[in-house]
Amino acid sequence: MSLQASYNTLTVEINNKVAHIVLNRPDELNSMNVDFWHEFPQVIDAINNLSAARAIVISSTGKHFCAGMDLAVFSANNDTDNIELGRKHEQLRRLVLRLQACFTVLESVRMPVLMAIQGGCIGGAVDMVTAADCRYCTRDAFFSIEETKLGMTADVGTLQRLPKLISIGLVKELAYTGRRMPADEAKQAGLVNHVYDDHQSMLDAVLGMAAEMATRSPLAVAGCKEMINYARDHSVADSLNYMSVWQSGMFQPQNDMMEIFTAKAQKREPQFAELTQIDPSKIF
C-alpha cells in the first residue's frame, strides 16, 4: 500500500512527520462522493501502514468543511431491482458497514488525528469528525445532524460516538431536530477543543499542535490513544487490566525513556525510532 501522487477528492502533504489531508472539492462543498469513500480510508491506511507520519491533520477548502454524503452515492447502489428482498437488505447492511469502516479507521490508526473545521460540518461530516481524536473549528463553524431532515437516521457513527463526547440529552436534541450547533456552543459542550477567529489561524495552530505531538515517542502516543479509546468503551476495571497488559509488553524504558534522558543531558531534541511498517499483503 502506498500514497499516490494525486487523488480526486483530497490532497496529502507530509512535513516534519505531520500528514496534512485536505478535502479538495470546494465547489461541491466537499461533499462525500463515491471517490471520497474509496480514497479517504486508503490514504489513512497508507499513512498508518507506512508509518509515514506521527500525526494527521484533516482540514478542508472553501466556505464549508463538508456538506456530508453526496446523493450520488445512493444512486450508485440502486441497481438491486432483481435481487430477492432479504438479500437486498443484507447487501444494504454490508454497504452501511463499509461506510462505517471508512471512519472507524481514524480510531484504529496508531497516530493522533486532528480535525480543523470551518463553516458547515453537516451530516456525514459529523460522522467523520466524531471519530477523530481532537476537533478544532473557526468561529463561523456549525455542526448539524441533517439526516432526520431527509427522513432517515444517521448511520455512519454520529449516534454512537457523539454521546461519548457531549451530553446525551444534547445529542438527542440535535439528532431529533437537525438544528445547527454553532461553534461557541460546540466548544461549551466539549465537542471542539478550541474556536479560532479565522481559517488560517486555526490551521497554523492545529498544524503546530500536531507538530508538537510528532516530537513525542510515537510508541508512547500510540499507547495513549489505544488506552483512552479502550477506556471510553469499557469499565474502569477492564481498562486498568488492559493497561497493565499493554505496559508489560510495550514499555521498554531502556529505549525511548533513556533517549529522553540522554537528549536532555546533551541539550538536544530526542530522536525516536518510528513505529514499524505494516504490509497488509503479507501474513508473515
From TrEMBL:
Name under which the protein is recorded: Crotonase/enoyl-CoA hydratase family protein
Where found?
Peroxisome
| Pathway this chain belongs to | Lipid metabolism; fatty acid beta-oxidation
What family does the database annotate?
A: Belongs to the enoyl-CoA hydratase/isomerase family.
Q: Which PANTHER family match?
A: ENOYL-COA HYDRATASE (PTHR43149)
GO-annotated cellular components: cytoplasm
BP term (GO), one = fatty acid metabolic process
Keyword Oxidoreductase assigned: no
Alphabetized GO MF terms: isomerase activity
Keyword Lipid metabolism among UniProt keywords: yes
Determine the domain of life of the protein's source. Bacteria
Q: Which UniProt keywords apply?
A: Acetylation, Fatty acid metabolism, Isomerase, Lipid metabolism, Peroxisome
